[in-house]
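sorry for the late reply, my laptop died twice this morning and i had to redo everyting from scratch. anyway the thing you sent over, i finally got around to it. pasting the sequence first so we're on the same page, its 488 residues, then the predicted structure underneath. double check i copied it right bc i was rushing
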Amino acid sequence: MFESAQLPQKMDKKTFKKLEPELREALLAAQLPVIENKPFSTLILVDGLDGAGKGEAVARLYGWMDARHLVCNAYGEPMDEARLRPPLWRYWRDLPEKGETAIVFGSWYQSILRDRIYEKIDDDAFEKSLARIRRFEEMLSNEDVLILKFWFVLPRDVQEERLKKIKKKNAARHVLADWAALKNHKIASEMGEKLILETSKGYAPWFVIPSQDPEYRDAALAQTVARSMKLKLEDGEAHSISAPPVVGGLKKETAVDTNDLTAKLAKADYEEMRDKYQKKLSDLSDRKSMSKTGVVLVFQGNDAAGKGGAIRRVIRPLDPRIYKVHPISAPTDEEKARPYLWRFWRRLPRKGHFAIFDRSWYERVLVERVEGYAGHEDWLRAYNEINEFEQELTDFGYIVCKFWLAISEEEQLCRFKAREDTAYKQHKITDDDWRNRLKWDQYAIAAGDMVDRTSTHYAPWTLVSAENKRHARVEVLRTICERLEEKL
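ok and here's the structure:
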């Protein structure tokens, strides 16, 4: 889920200098009414990898907000006073009163992260600790505490370079949190992802902040704090759990945006590779070990990206008795009367079979989000619900393959026009397609958030360049074969 956060989001110093007065104004405009009216207190948790500039970002925040009503609490290993009390005692002790803001370094997540990374606790104990934290944060939220949690991310090579500079410059004063240091980059990222997936709730959201560029990092932090406090002041409701899609007029680049749409495959190469992977898929589906697993294939993407064509190439080598394609459209009245995942649960395959979804439960965070069919809170919580649903599937033994088929806005227009001009394709183009096209940017943001928040190690997204249909179809077939081969 850190794909987009690993990308080098950048803001030049000139843009930042121009933006800085606006950020200061927005922060004070949000903070001062809170100080005066005392409707809630604010907790800002700062976590993530060493070298990401957490201290620098907080220092800048201090310079922009009213520091008289801002306190920074840093926690290391508990001293005797804390060791003689329950683990959460010292955090309770330091809670800010209404109207005040506290920044927390070394939060209640630190000790359980360290213990899990060093295998002092197992997965079960880790899960129980996270459940306890969720209850703690929910109670604080119910008692008028605004909780904002930030996870600062760096690619491994950038972290390595940063830490070298820090060590050379000020080794005596800089103390690394061992769990977040370079040697633990991989496992810290994995455990951080799990922690965020399990504990990012509407009442206590995590914001993953790309930290390669200091100006972008600090602007994203400030903008998120100001926006969240403002939303809380306005309606008292929970706030967005995604980092701002636009920072200082610059659109955040997501993993979806970086998909290389120039990928192509010649016709002769396509036919050879298609036949190869279709034969392989047929052989794999006939294996005896298939009886121990089920396969769930999810196809999402831009309208006219070629989901149907890719699905037809997948089912061609399969025995019709072992698969079913589920085209998903707007929910019926019967489906609306039940929780939204109900209609997908009842379509799950038995072991040894394939269920192929042409659109899926992800419409909750795409169409329903953009078109307003789902309320703000409903689509926000859907990320966690979907992750838990997919984990339940994979824990049972299913293979879950998810494909995002991407085309450019220009290619989509060409395909729309071609559908209108071809009699046997006219049924594929509707007024809704043209209407959705007007919201291209909103759908792009929603797709980026979707991939970021639901691409997990047990059910990763495969981003497919579909500008060239031949390339897309082979990529889908190849990926399914690889996942099946790995499992079987």
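The radius of gyration is 24 Å.
thats about all i looked at so far, will dig more tmrw
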